[in-house]
Every structure is written in C-alpha cells, then in structure tokens.
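User: Quick sanity check before I run a bigger batch. Here is a single chain. Can you write out its predicted 3D structure?
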Amino acid sequence: MKTYSFDEVKDKYLGERGSEKREQYEYELRMDLIGEAIKTARKERNLTQEQLGKLVGVQKAQISKIENHLTDARFDTILKVFKALNAKINFQVELLNQNVKLG
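Assistant: Done. Predicted structure follows.
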C-alpha cells in the first residue's frame, strides 16, 4: 500500500499551491487556527467573551464570531484582541514566485 504525504493529498484534492481552491482552503485553515488561539488564550486568562469584547471595544458577538470563524474580522481587530490578551504574535510572510507588473 502506497502512502501519501498530507501535501500530496492537498495537491490532488484541493489543487496545487496558488490555485484558487487551495488558497481558499489555506486561508480558512489559518482563520480557524487564529480563532482557536484566541479562544484558548481567553480561557487561560479566565475571561468571558463579553469581558474580552469590553477590553477590545467590540460586542461579545464579535468575539464569538472571531473564535468560531463565522466572520472575516479586520486585521486591526485581531491585533487588538491579542493585545488585550497580552499575547505575543508572530507572522510569517512568504513571497510567491510571481512577477509583479506595474501598470
């Protein structure tokens, strides 16, 4: 029986990196991971969604939507959430091998 790597399976069923379907999958996965990280950090800080919302300046419903990936939260809102949780954030930027054309 042949075994396949996770990347090979993703390539086969979602398309190769850079394809629209694969990029959407990767984006949704990242948003799920961010939401889970926020939920975990909030619980470790013994905060309710309502309390975290007050610290950030948003409603409880917005925190719930971010944690459960039910909305595309603004980047600055996510940064405010992590700041309120006193959490360190690391971002990785990957440049794709694509030409950039100036109009």
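Helices lie at 6-14, 20-44, 49-56, 60-67, 75-84.

User: Great, the batch can go ahead then.
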